[in-house]
């Protein structure tokens, strides 16, 4: 016996395919929604974690900035203390400078040279005096420049011919001179001595 299907099988097959397509489309949309939701949650979680890390880093950076400021303040205080210490040491060493100045000047003055006045401004000393000749002034300059640890850079400012009356009829020609020399601090004057001792 021959069976004939009179039902609309093409429409039923088309409907079945359409239902399967809609079901797979809905499942795909649901899967896509779930994946997007999970991705959104994961990205939000990562963003939140990174913001927390950034906040921690910002707090630590502020702490380090405060420490850097404290260190800079300490360095400036140390520099100020060193400057004060150097000033005190300079004052301490300069306390005996007049003694060294006079002692060394007496030692370095050649015979026939007399100092009339001496003026000290800071480390510069200006000597005004009388010498029996220009050669004596040259000898004084050599002594102050090479033989003394307490004087440096002697400079002849002026030399003027003059005369001195010793007795009623005894008049001699002399050289009036002005010399400027730099006085060496005690700490610097001790260095060549220590080097020579080695």
Question: What can you see in these coordinates?
Answer:
Helix content is 63%, strand content 23%. The protein has helices spanning 9-94, 97-108, 134-147, 186-197; strands spanning 113-121, 124-131, 151-165, 171-183. Residues 192-198 have low confidence and may be disordered. It has a 4-stranded antiparallel β-sheet, with helices on one face. It has 198 residues and is α+β, with helices and mostly antiparallel strands. It contains 4 helices and 4 strands.
Search tags:
198 residues, alpha+beta, 4 helices, 4 strands, 63% helix, disordered C terminus
Question: What are the SSEs and their pairings?
Answer:
Blueprint: H1 9-94, H2 97-108, E1 113-121, E2 124-131, H3 134-147, E3 151-165, E4 171-183, H4 186-197
Antiparallel strand pairs: 1-2, 2-4, 3-4
């Amino acid at each position: 016996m021959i069976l004939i299907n009179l039902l609309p099988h093409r429409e039923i097959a088309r409907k079945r395919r359409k239902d399967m397509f809609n079901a797979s489309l809905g499942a795909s949309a649901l899967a896509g929604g779930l994946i997007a939701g999970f991705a959104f949650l994961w990205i939000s979680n990562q963003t939140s974690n990174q913001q927390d890390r950034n906040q921690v880093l910002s707090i630590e950076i502020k702490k380090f900035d405060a420490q850097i400021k404290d260190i800079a303040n300490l360095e400036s205080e140390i520099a100020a203390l060193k400057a004060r210490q150097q000033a005190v040491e300079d004052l301490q060493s300069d306390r005996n400078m007049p003694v060294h100045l006079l002692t060394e000047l007496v030692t370095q003055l050649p015979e026939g040279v007399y100092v009339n006045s001496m003026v000290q401004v800071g480390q510069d000393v200006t000597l005004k005096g009388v010498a029996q000749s220009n050669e004596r002034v040259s000898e004084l300059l050599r002594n102050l420049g090479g033989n003394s640890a307490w004087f440096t850079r002697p400079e002849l400012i002026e030399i003027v011919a003059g005369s001195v009356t010793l007795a009623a009829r005894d008049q001699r020609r002399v050289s009036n001179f002005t010399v400027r020399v730099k006085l060496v601090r005690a700490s610097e004057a001790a260095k060549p001595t220590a080097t020579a001792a080695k």
